[in-house]
Design brief:
By secondary structure, the chain is an alpha/beta fold. It has one domain: NAD(P)-binding Rossmann-like Domain (Rossmann fold), CATH 3.40.50.720. It contains seven helices and six strands. A six-stranded parallel β-sheet has the order 2-1-3-4-5-6, sandwiched between helices. The radius of gyration is 17 Å and the shape is globular.
Length: about 220
């Protein structure tokens, strides 16, 4: 039976690669655009969910933003937008879909976290906090739904060759980052997408509640 995956933030980067990987493996993909479901707006999210007339077997909470700000210079409007996108929207979507997956006896949720949930750099206090929170939510959700064959995990990418990485790092900084990684390069979005796909697929029958760091060795040196 064909399965359906809902992917947020699917227009570029890791999300776009996820769309391609899931479609290649025969999944039907639902990828709402911002005009359909604005993750900054709980009313917009609920309206989208209320009008969604199909079962979702897999949820990939990929959308995320990362405005940088040193403590003491945090803009709290931006911080609220970051937390709404990176944490509250995945919680709201999981809260809606996980019980329905439980009723059907199958479901997979993959939350896209970040290496900054485990290590950090200046300017990333809000982003790191949002991703650490999603890791904690993932663990608890996994415990609550594991007995119903609903497996819930997080993937924490390191430096990936995406627009977000280019936005927050100059070309010179990116070259320095590559040289500092044990693997000596950035990840390509498809490499992260393939890991997400495994966790979301029928091949994953036992892994749940984990945050898997896919960072080319960055967090172990």
């Amino acid at each position: 039976m064909n399965k359906t995956v809902l992917i947020t933030g699917a227009s570029k980067g890791i999300g776009k690669a996820c769309v391609e990987v899931f479609q290649k493996n025969g999944y039907s993909v639902v990828a709402p655009m911002r005009k359909e479901m604005d993750l900054l707006n709980t009313i917009s999210i609920q309206s989208y969910l209320d009008n969604l007339n199909q079962d979702i077997d897999v949820l990939v909470n990929n959308a995320g933003i990362n405005p940088l700000a040193i403590i003491g210079e945090i803009d709290f409007r931006s911080a609220h937008e970051l937390l709404n996108t990176n944490f509250w929207a995945p919680v709201m979507l999981s809260n809606f879909f996980a019980p329905k997956m439980k009723q059907r006896g199958f479901g997979r949720i993959v939350n896209v976290s970040s290496i900054w949930s485990g290590v950090t750099k200046p300017g990333r206090s809000m982003y790191a906090s949002s991703k650490a929170a999603i890791n904690a939510f993932t663990r608890t959700a996994a415990v609550e739904f594991a007995s119903s064959n609903v497996l819930i995990n997080a993937v924490a990418p390191g430096y990936v060759n995406t627009e977000l990485t280019e936005l927050n790092n100059s070309p010179e900084q990116i070259e320095q980052i590559k040289a500092s990684l044990p693997i000596n390069r950035l990840a390509e979005p498809v490499e992260i997408a393939e890991l997400i796909y495994f966790l979301a697929s029928d091949k994953n029958t036992f892994v749940t509640g984990q945050t898997i760091f896919a960072d080319g060795g960055y967090s172990i040196i």
